[in-house]
Amino acid sequence: MEQLRIYTLADKETAAHYFTVNWSKHRINLPRFGFEVKGVWIGNTPGIANQVIALISFPDNADVERMTERYLKSPEFANDTAGFDRNKITNVETKILRSAG
């Protein structure tokens, strides 16, 4: 299965930093917790320029909430977000996607 994650940040500069700095680290560490990063994008139009959008894959039978919680409590996540003000993430939206085929 896949999960679409949409992170809305305080402004487009913060989104650019989160996309460039933090997601480069997440790409390395998420696979250690069973996630596969399929892609990460930054909004490219005025209405979504402050959003970072990621497509994450995981096994069909996985407990995504448990996997996510394990990662969020890990030293790897602490390192990934060191120096970043997480309060600048104003919203996180997640959607579980299943293939139609």
Please describe what this structure looks like:
- This protein has 101 residues and is an alpha+beta fold.
- It has one domain (2-88): 2-Layer Sandwich (Alpha-Beta Plaits), CATH 3.30.70.
- The chain contains 3 helices and 4 strands; from the N terminus they run βαββααβ.
- Strands 2-3-1-4 form a 4-stranded antiparallel β-sheet, with helices on one face.
- A hairpin with an 8-residue loop joins strand 2 (36-42) and strand 3.
- The longest helix has 18 residues, at 12-29.
- The radius of gyration is 13 Å and the shape is globular.
- The two termini are 12 Å apart.
- The model has no long low-confidence stretch (mean pLDDT 94).
- What is the average of the pLDDT values? 94
Low-confidence stretches: none
What order do the helices and strands follow?
EHEEHHE
Q: Helix count, per DSSP?
A: 3
Overall spatial form: globular
- Under CATH at level 1, the class stands as Alpha Beta
Total discrete domains: 1
Give, in spatial order, the strands making up the sheet with the most strands: 2-3-1-4
Radius of gyration: 13 Å
What class would the helix/strand composition place it in?
alpha+beta
CATH architecture designation: 2-Layer Sandwich
Number of strands: 4
User: What can be said about the biggest beta sheet?
Assistant: 4 strands, antiparallel
CATH topology assignment: Alpha-Beta Plaits
Helix coverage percent of residues?
Answer: 25-40%
Q: Tell me the span between the first and last alpha carbons.
A: 12 Å
Strand content: 25-35%
Protein name: NIPSNAP family containing protein
Domain NIPSNAP: 3-99
